[in-house]
């Protein structure tokens, strides 16, 4: 059983999700957290991963490491997205299994579900229809990770479980407009427009698509739940189960940032999928639910943005 002295290896502990898991576990009194940056340990290298796990002897591994990116990056580097993600997760999952580790938490993404799956997305829709082509490389890698954990769980009765988060945002987010997700991009755009005498903000699309957002600390709490309990099934969606239009999201961000200028919706730009919402009833039924309201989460994210704005500027912000 896991306790506060257990050695917990968080792969990808410098990333947005991994650092939130580290923060939340530290705050709960877990004292033996370990991690290595990609410079110290390249997870694509099988022997290096084996040596690291042998040396550090973790009781549990949380895999929050991945090569992540948007549509453009997926389109331009399909081989890297498929291969590197499979290498990272295969090395971690396989070496954990071979070296006798009984508990493993694998993080994926809602893109594993078919493009035209009914909404809200249920876990049982996995592998029932074709994927969204723009990120199928990444999605396929993640699906193999889910299936590998399921196979080890079924065949060897180990507690290997996969958690699939919805869109995440929060502390440690990426505010680079070339690669950021919609919510941090809005925070930055509204903030800069406010500083610029409340100039006009132009946002992409019609504003009508509906999306779900989960504060990253809530995601970390879901990981803690999976750590402290043996979950009865192999795959769980993690989200709020609630969505809103992009237009309503923009109104909320604008209010929190304090921008009072006009907003233009550029509907020559693509909208993407009309709706993407997770069915989180399986997690609710076993006792986990998100805690942070969207408005509070955006406020916290904006506060963090303001505290770190100088660092972003140095990185060609
Ligand atoms: N952010 C979201 O909205 C979201 C939504 C759904 C699911 N997820 C999932 O959550 C997980 C983490 O995402 P994130 O947003 O935290 O990503 P992130 O901020 O880009 O962090 C990814 C981490 O992976 C590590 N990494 C990548 N390649 C590596 C390699 N070859 N060797 C060692 N480490 C490597 C990086 O380490 P270094 O920093 O040391 O280079 C980085 O810390 C992913 O599986 C992702 O699919 C995220």
Automatic annotation (TrEMBL):
Metabolic or biological pathway, per its Swiss-Prot or TrEMBL entry: Nucleotide-sugar biosynthesis; GDP-L-fucose biosynthesis via de novo pathway; GDP-L-fucose from GDP-alpha-D-mannose: step 2/2
Residues annotated as binding NADP(+): 12-18, 107-110, 142, 165-168, 181
Catalytic activity: GDP-beta-L-fucose + NADP(+) = GDP-4-dehydro-alpha-D-rhamnose + NADPH + H(+)
Protein's UniProt name: GDP-L-fucose synthase
Database matches in HAMAP family: GDP_fucose_synth
Binding sites annotated in the UniProt record for substrate: 189, 204, 211, 271
Keywords: Isomerase, Multifunctional enzyme, NADP, Oxidoreductase
Recorded superkingdom: Bacteria
Catalytic residue list: 138 (proton donor/acceptor)
Protein family according to the UniProt entry: Belongs to the NAD(P)-dependent epimerase/dehydratase family. Fucose synthase subfamily.
Class of this enzyme: oxidoreductase
TM spans (from-to): none
Upper classification of the organism: Bacteria, Pseudomonadati, Bacteroidota, Flavobacteriia, Flavobacteriales
Function field: Catalyzes the two-step NADP-dependent conversion of GDP-4-dehydro-6-deoxy-D-mannose to GDP-fucose, involving an epimerase and a reductase reaction.
Pfam families per UniProt: Epimerase (PF01370)
Domain NAD-dependent epimerase/dehydratase: 8-239
E.C. number(s) listed in UniProt: 1.1.1.271
Keyword Metal-binding: no
Entry keyword Ubl conjugation: no
Site (Important for catalytic activity): 109, 111
InterPro entries for this protein: Epimerase_deHydtase (IPR001509), GDP_fucose/colitose_synth (IPR028614), NAD(P)-bd_dom_sf (IPR036291)
